[in-house]
Design a protein that fits this description.
The structure is a homodimer. With about 240 residues, chain A is an alpha/beta fold. Helices cover about 40% and strands about 20% of the residues of chain A. In chain A, strands 2-1-3-4-5 form a 5-stranded parallel β-sheet, with helices on both faces. A 4-stranded antiparallel β-sheet of chain A has the order 6-7-8-9, with no helix packed on it. A 3-stranded antiparallel β-sheet of chain A has the order 10-12-11. In chain A, strand 1, helix 1 and strand 2 form a beta-alpha-beta unit. In chain A, helix 2 packs parallel to helix 3 and helix 7 crosses helix 8. The termini of chain A are close together. Chains A and B meet through helix 4 and helix 5 of A and helix 4 and helix 5 of B. Chain A binds a DNA duplex (30 and 30 nucleotides) through helix 9.
Amino acid sequence: MNTVLLVEDEKEIRRFVRLALQGEGCQVSEAETMTQGLQEAANLKPQLIILDLGLPDGNGVDFVQRLRSWSQVPVLVVSARSTEYDKILVLDAGADDYLTKPFSVGELLARVRALLRRSRADNELNTPVVKFGTIEVDLARRLVSKAQQSVHLTAMEFKLLSVLLTNAGRVLTHRHLLREVWGGAHSEHNHYLRIYVAHLRQKLEDDPTQPVYFQTEIGVGYRFQPQMGQVGFSQDMSA
Amino acid sequence: MNTVLLVEDEKEIRRFVRLALQGEGCQVSEAETMTQGLQEAANLKPQLIILDLGLPDGNGVDFVQRLRSWSQVPVLVVSARSTEYDKILVLDAGADDYLTKPFSVGELLARVRALLRRSRADNELNTPVVKFGTIEVDLARRLVSKAQQSVHLTAMEFKLLSVLLTNAGRVLTHRHLLREVWGGAHSEHNHYLRIYVAHLRQKLEDDPTQPVYFQTEIGVGYRFQPQMGQVGFSQDMSA
DNA sequence: ACAGTATTTACACCATTTTTACATTCCACC
DNA sequence: GGTGGAATGTAAAAATGGTGTAAATACTGT
């Protein structure tokens, strides 16, 4: 069964939309604020998020950007604001569809079905728990453990790990990594990468002097290599 | 570069949309009828299809259903008809988005970007792999293996291999190879080529003294000869 | 002020690239 | 069919620059 997270502050609309979605056979969870919405997204791992832009705390663009740093779950934005600028901004931030209030139930459900249909194809990607060797990483909850022992990563370390993991198997150039983790301004400081990759190796590799997961491509960049094809983006939804 | 197929009968609108898409860096192909559109979709394998519902021959629902029988390419429907029923029908048939005319260019492009972004994520998983003999080369991931054993190539070695492979069967002059790999400044140092071709042979040929794949054209240059016609650019057909 | 973190600095080390030297093959010409 | 010179192949050194490690310093929020 599909789980849909509804981030919406108006009680009436929540009820209205929830009933419609339940009629589709979806399980519906609700959040009233964006911060709460992000938490729920991490906990529930829904197959779809419906987001109202008109929430009191924070804007939708920010919500989508932060969500996208660890999840590819489809986002359908619903808003009373219908200016072109609003739409473009949030779509480019990573949202998948935009529906202007007032909307018809039928169209909402059709768009929900379209998004769910497509996300089913690649939903192995969406699940944010990555396992390799004895290590488990929950990108959504920012939790890392090695051999059942929880491992503490700093903010930068985690961000770097997250970028490497979401591009598993591919070489990421120094430039690209620096832009993603530190921001465009520091795209020349290759030193940072050596230090933080060293940290990750120290904390996660079985033998930090013989790295297996975090490989160096000299003169190019670094790659995360899921060993033995054992990257299981496994997830149990306990229905 | 992304290819977009535009199925639309009105010349004005075609021109209008084509210019906008080209501004995004897309390559645009056009079809005036649905039957023509299906043919083009099969031939070009575009990354996105924009479909006008108001075409003279046949309806859009039919178009999408037939397309979906063999392709998962995203479809953005554009239509003057805006009844809820129209939208639901074509979305449920397999379309991914629905935009009502008249629409703003900005919103159209934002929705196009959203669809392309998601379809790219799907395709990134299976990158083209070149196979010859017991060797496999994944150019996108910079991975090379021989008989299931991963082979390490240096930056220059890989660059050279990449140029040779993408021109399989063709003779590449010393000059050309040097310009591609080392840059224009070193186009006279033929020694480099001998050394690095030797490296590739050492690492990839079954018998480096009797090269089969990396052949010398004396006085001219080198060629990569995919033996047994077995160059398989295996690639996903989702487009 | 303190602890945790990010950034800077310093240095030893190693892989790759480039240089250098010499053996081998090819091919035209005798 | 040899022979010599040019082109090519091999094998090592030398030079370059990237990389890993450790530690000191600056920063940040509490």
